[in-house]
Design goal:
The complex is a heterodimer.
Chain A: E1 9-24, E2 27-39, E3 42-46, H1 53-60, E4 68-73, E5 76-77, H2 83-90, E6 93-96, H3 108-119, H4 125-138, H5 154-166, E7 172-176, H6 184-200, E8 204-209, H7 212-218, E9 221-226, E10 229-234, H8 236-240, H9 248-252
Parallel strand pairs in A: 3-8, 3-9, 6-7, 7-8
Antiparallel strand pairs in A: 1-2, 1-4, 4-5, 9-10
Helix pairs in contact in A: 3-5, 5-6, 6-7
Chain B: H1 10-14, H2 18-43, H3 50-89, H4 96-134, H5 137-143, H6 148-187, H7 191-199, H8 204-230, H9 235-266
The chains are: A alpha/beta, B mainly alpha.
Chain lengths: 257, 269
Amino acid sequence: MEKAKAHIDHKKKVISIHGLEKSFEDYAVLRGIDLDLYQGENLVVLGRSGTGKSVLIKLISGLLKPDRGTIEVLGQNVANISEKELQELRIRIGFSFQSSALYDSMTVRKNLEFPLVRNRKNITREEIDTEVEKVLDAVGLSQTINQMPAELSGGQRKRIGIARTLILNPEIMLYDEPTAGLDPITCIEINDLINEVQQKYDTSSIIITHDLTCAKSTGDRIAMLLDGKFQRVGTFDEVFNTDDDRVKPFFDYNFIQ
Amino acid sequence: MNKKSTTSPPAEKTGFSLKQRLAEFFADLYKVHLFVLRFFKEAFLPPFEFKEIVRQCFEVGVRSFTLITVTGFIVGLIFTKQSRPSLSEFGATSWLPSLVSIAIMRALAPLVTALIASGKVGSSIGAELGSMRVTEQIDAMEVSGTKPFKYLVCTRVIATTVTIPILASYTAFIALLGAYLNVNQNEGTSYTTFMEQVFEPLTFLDFTASLIKSVVFGFTIGIVGCYQGYYSTKGTEGVGKAANGAVVTAMFIVFIEEIIIVQIIGNFR
């Protein structure tokens, strides 16, 4: 499916990162990241495995603390807010994990209800059912409502993972390797779903991937992470129209449709 | 990716330095201390996960029920059988019910229950939370604005703290049943006489001490299992370590607590 034109508001930054640094013991993973995500935009962060792409979105969601730098998400500095404020902010951010991270002791219905009943006070049973059906319909998996995660395929698990984040109507979506480990057809379906979410739910997204097909079909802008910094940022063609030996092999070894 | 230069001596890097090990031990101790404090801070604040607490109580009870029934019965039976020769030397076999009841109520029932629960429940909690940690399920709860600590840790610790005293009472009953069968077979003592002799030497302090021990053991098993699982790392290897660590550490601490509580209770006798 061709990506529809996104309604990006370049005046409104939903995420603004400055001088972000993160090390693990003596490993400096991120070394001064600067990044802005605009309202309604899909930004793809590309990079090889181990370059700190997932670390970046874990820092944005407050799962990790930065060593240096600031991360402003929806106007709040994630590193300096209280636990309660962070919890409230997280409701406005959807996080789709690489492993889907579905609660394997709960059915699909319970997985979807879990964040909803804990974040919406006084919600009725009917409202819960309506919300669950709505998000399942959005990801096209209404028939799986009573299944356990172990009974789902990899692509279905990814979709349910996305549905679980959508149930709270997030303003920002963070996708960690949404197409990793999936067959090419399912990858295309997930890419289409990411674009649908952007359109239907009016979200701004950061998509972490090393899959160029995913990057090209979902990204309004691409940021290439190399050696702990964004070396190239722009449209897909702008990023890969280069002789840079660090970027070119990434393009050459990927299959682009 | 470049590495930052490091000036650490080789001994420190490989983890063989005594200083580093001590530092790690105290860092771990501090982390445990924070974990326990966090439990008390979050367990008594709303929202309360009543449904999950009840579900966990049921899980803890069901997981250990069969093993506790078998073990409790055997403990009562064997203890009676092994004690008889010593008492018969002094012609005091009629004291068997009293001896057995004191041993079971004061020590065996809470301790045997705690050791079985450490193996069955502690390892299960450690493995379950460890697996949730390494598959990012705990992170998923955190980023969806829910409180995984409250939902996963508080509920399990409350469940073990509440359920293990109940299981210990059941163990005592089953062990006394085993003892009665042996006494009845050998001495022909009736059930009523046996029960009278069982309760005769027991005081309120014995019941209280047994209850306190079970509560402390239950809390320990829950908190150790949860701590090991919640901070599990290194993938599937970490899950195994968490399960193993939950059993070994809980058993070790239970024995230490047994000694301390016996000493304290001894002062009130």
